[in-house]
Amino acid sequence: MGLTKQYLRYVASAVFGLIGSQKGNIVFVTLRGEKGRYVAVPACEHVFIWDLRKGEKILILQGLKQEVTCLCPSPDGLHLAVGYEDGSIRIFSLLSGEGNVTFNGHKAAITSLKYDQLGGRLASGSKDTDAIVWDVINESGLYRLKGHKDAITQALFLREKNLLVTSGKDTMVKWWDLDTQHCFKTMVGHRTEVWGLVLVSEDKRLITGASDSELRAWDIAYLQEVADLEEPEPKKSKGTSPEIQDTQPEDGALETDETPEDRILTCRKAGSIMREGKDRVVNLAVDRTGRILACHGTDSVLEVFCILSKAEVQKKMDKKMKKARKKAKLNSSKGEEEDIEVSVEMTLQDEIQRVTNIKTSAKIKSFDFIHSPQGELKAVFLLQNNLVESYSLQPSAPAPQPVRTSRITIGGHRSDVRTLSFSSDNIAVLSAAAESVKIWNRATLQCIRTMICEYALCSFFVPGDRQVVIGTKTGKLQLYDLASGNLLETIDAHDGALWSLSLSPDQRGFVTGGADKSVKFWDFELVKDENSTQKRLSVKQTRTLQLDEDVLCVRYSPNQKLLAVSLLDCTVKIFYVDTLKFFLSLYGHKLPVICMDISYDGALIATGSADRNVKIWGLDFGDCHKSLFAHDDSVMYLQFVPKSHLFFTAGKDHKIKQWDADKFEHIQTLEGHHQEIWCLAVSPSGDYVVSSSHDKSLRLWERTREPLILEEEREMQREAEYEESVAKEDQPVVPGETQGDNYFTGKKTIETVKAAERIMEA
């Protein structure tokens, strides 16, 4: 044994099963000169570009590690700004798919990104309460705007004036003069978080959405021109401290605080539009033409409004006037001839008119829309259940009816995948969730079959790979034929969840374990098919092992002599398969064993528990060889790599880890998932691992030929941890934040720190 054991590195190979993730927003992008056909959606750390017409993914903008939280296309349609969970921003070219520009200036997730009209500047808002204006052309930060007390929800440039308006969860709307970079007005008219903000009518009106049913409208009058005419007294110097006093609203306080800076503009509340939704506004937007306004809450309804032009409003008012005159004439005394004075009030409802609602098939997470010159409105939605839907609408029609034009559904499940299996030839992957079973081609990652099922918990390919079996939450076994995609049979196997399945090594049958405290043995059989002359696959139960506790997991030993059964009382009991007599009890976990596996030679059994530990036991005497603290949360799945004593574990702590059961070494951690991992499957060849997570993604990992040396791996781990702690230290980002002009060094890295250390030594 002179040589150290050689391990091979597994690397991330692909993210699939994901249509769009919840944290960011969906946007239309222009590709190949086509508007309204392609959409960009956040997909964990990546951005996927989907073709709505074909339902195909045509481009992936590769992220690093951080989840995408915000998307904004540039006005010329050539670029996409992408904001991430850690506060970084990257600008991708939609032509090349490269993200060559990176902006590091925020300390927390990006919540808002908006370009100015020409696309030369980008305003970002973040959970860290700052807004930053970036110079896209020179790839540098211009200035940081501090003043909000909570996350920024929106930041918008004005078209004509060098101003920015921001809204926040601190209930404030702030106006910033970008020439002096300070806040000259704080609107305090909202009593709750301001979730949405749009400018309409040539920036003369601001509409806000908050935590109630009211969309508030504010009229904005720009006073620079007016003030110059009225009074020649000297203007207040612009160099006042950037911390303009934030007047807190008292009961019935003014809608805005009056400061001498009202020279620039005044805001007057113009009224409200009542939404039908009773909850908070989640997204509020206006299309590029400024004609259509739309918003949604936490439900599945988008409310669409039309903003009428001055001429349309005038026409409407004339009609109203005619009506009023007619009425007045009728009511007045007969004889009088002179004109009767009538007046009609113009309300906000006369200017902003409700068009219709678009009802989607599930809760809306985000939306985007385009109003075409032909008058058609195209709206696209990212839904909460891993689905993209698009609708078309003619807002000017007498009774506008939304029509669903496309949906992207095949490439993912509507709910979390709870079980994964590989076919015996390593080519097909099965994934099953609460509503369907999908079969994927591992090489192309295309979904080749989708079959409706009940809530799936466990699965396997029947030997021969022509059928699959799944076990469900209601205790049923469901058998499917892959060629036809048909459900062959549903068998009531257990009263309560069927938690676990184990195929017998002789491949003639399998065993099931359930919440009804029983283990059942089944044989495959061929039965006469009513519909054809052919026989079809079925199963018959042969034996039952009754226990005192719920069964969580079952595993056959490779020689089929022993059966391991994990119970709710935190023990694992080993029985002889032929007599069902008790052989061993593995006792030591503090919480139930959720997952376990037996090595190919039957020598070892590894158990993973909700107590976060993995224990390795000898199967001859049931002695515990080692207890490993494996994950920072429950160990959800465990599987040996075929023909080895190496095994993988998946945890609720978002990590997959590989271990050596002989040396008790942690070999490598596979990071990538952003939420708890429910299950994994190792291919029969050991070359592939596939995993599923609450982040809705399935991930494929591939074994490379690259040797992995533990000492080097540990060293890299330490450097990564150090790098992370260094990067958290404050970095100057915009000019004037610290002395010296070298303000755009970005995040500190090991390289820069080492360089600094070398200089100090010299």
Automatic annotation (TrEMBL):
* Annotated region described as Disordered, given as residue ranges: 230-261, 720-745
Q: Name one GO cellular component term.
A: small-subunit processome
Show the InterPro entries listed in the entry: Quinoprotein_ADH-like_sf, TBC1_cilium_biogenesis, WD40/YVTN_repeat-like_dom_sf, WD40_PAC1, WD40_repeat_CS, WD40_repeat_dom_sf, WD40_rpt
| Complexes and interactors | Part of the small subunit (SSU) processome, composed of more than 70 proteins and the RNA chaperone small nucleolar RNA (snoRNA) U3.
**What keywords appear on the UniProt entry?**
Isopeptide bond, Nucleus, Phosphoprotein, Repeat, Ubl conjugation, WD repeat
Q: Annotated Gene Ontology MF terms?
A: snoRNA binding
Subcellular localization, per the record?
Answer: Nucleus, Nucleolus
**Bias-annotated ranges (Basic and acidic residues):** 720-731
A Gene Ontology biological process noted in the UniProt record is: maturation of SSU-rRNA
Is Phosphoprotein among the key words of this record? yes
Family named by the database record: Belongs to the WD repeat WDR3/UTP12 family.
Task: Give yes or no: UniProt keyword Kinase.
Answer: no
Q: Where is the composition biased (Acidic residues)?
A: 248-260
Give the WD repeat ranges: 61-102, 103-144, 145-186, 187-228, 410-450, 491-525, 586-627, 628-669, 670-702
Gene3D superfamilies reported for this sequence: YVTN repeat-like/Quinoprotein amine dehydrogenase
Q: What is the documented function of this protein?
A: Part of the small subunit (SSU) processome, first precursor of the small eukaryotic ribosomal subunit. During the assembly of the SSU processome in the nucleolus, many ribosome biogenesis factors, an RNA chaperone and ribosomal proteins associate with the nascent pre-rRNA and work in concert to generate RNA folding, modifications, rearrangements and cleavage as well as targeted degradation of pre-ribosomal RNA by the RNA exosome.
Q: Which SMART domains match?
A: WD40 (SM00320)
Name of this protein: WD repeat-containing protein 3
